[in-house]
Design a protein that fits this description.
Blueprint lengths: L19 H4 L2 H6 L3 E2 L1 E6 L5 E6 L2 E6 L2 E9 L3 H9 L1 E6 L5 H9 L7 H5 L3 E2 L8 E2 L4 E11 L7 E13 L17 E4 L14 E4 L10
Antiparallel strand pairs: 1-11, 2-3, 2-6, 4-5, 5-10, 6-9, 7-8, 9-10, 11-12
The structure holds flavin mononucleotide.
The site of flavin mononucleotide has 16 residues, from strand 3, strand 5, helix 3 and helix 4.
């Protein structure tokens, strides 16, 4: 038997904090889809570097280009910085840096140098002015292509960035390797619900475990 859930939030999905279902769709907690975690780096209006921990994202493209489809709350510095500078860097860090990323949320003032807050090292990008995080095993430099307000609520923005350039740490550059293990991509598991009781507020971080390798490619 499958549990069916439609556009209406089920009554037994109680909010864990006020406004939870304004910020998040009930489908997010019902589906429980893991998303890769990363830090977006941009430059604030005062020239200080900004770090934003994020997870709503996907990548797609074809021979004509590769695109990051990411999503930011419109109230964030990151969204305002991207609108102003038309560029950003997506930095993939291993789970060792989870707490450092969270620190950049706690110390998020306009005047804060968020690289200092997270004890990150600035690395110059090749194609954009926004800095890379040196500690990240993968940096993806993007130019803004388009923004969309999918729900029309004025809360969230979908940001499409064209990938200009990437930099991968050597140890992670050999195919099916450390990227897909304990020290590779980390994933956000955002409060998946028990769909029967409506309970569940625990979040988690996951890493990949390679299950099948197709040697034939
Ligand atoms: C695990 C986790 C995942 C997050 N994912 C996102 C996200 O995908 N998009 C977003 O806008 N904020 C996300 N946030 C919240 C931002 O990191 C937070 O609002 C941050 O302070 C924004 O920084 P800024 O104002 O410097 O841009 C996430 C937070 C955590 C802890």
């Amino acid at each position: 038997m499958k549990i069916e859930i439609g556009n209406q939030k089920p009554d037994h999905f109680t909010a864990n904090w006020p406004g939870e279902y304004d910020v998040f769709s009930h489908f997010e907690f019902a589906c429980g889809i893991p998303h890769p975690l990363f830090a977006i780096t941009t430059i604030k209006e005062n020239g200080k570097p900004n770090v934003c921990f994020g997870s709503w994202t996907s990548f797609t493209g074809d021979g004509g280009g590769y695109y990051a489809i990411t999503s930011c709350m419109q109230r964030t510095h990151t969204y305002q910085n991207i609108l102003r500078t038309k560029e950003f860097v997506i930095n993939f860090l291993s789970k060792e840096y989870f707490d450092a990323c969270v620190a950049t949320i706690r110390h998020n003032d306009h005047d804060a140098d968020e690289f200092e807050v997270g004890h990150f090292t600035i690395q110059e990008s090749k194609t954009v002015a926004s800095p890379r995080i040196e500690e990240a095993f993968l940096n993806i430099e993007c130019s803004l292509q388009q923004t969309l307000d999918l729900s029309g609520n004025g809360r969230n923005a979908t940001i499409i960035g064209k990938v200009n350039h990437i930099a991968m740490q050597e140890e992670y550059a050999t195919g099916i390797d450390d990227k897909y293990g304990e020290n590779g991509f980390m994933f956000n598991i955002n409060s998946p619900k028990n769909l029967i009781t409506g309970e569940g507020q625990a979040s988690a971080v996951a890493v990949c475990k390679v299950a099948l390798i197709n040697e034939e490619g």
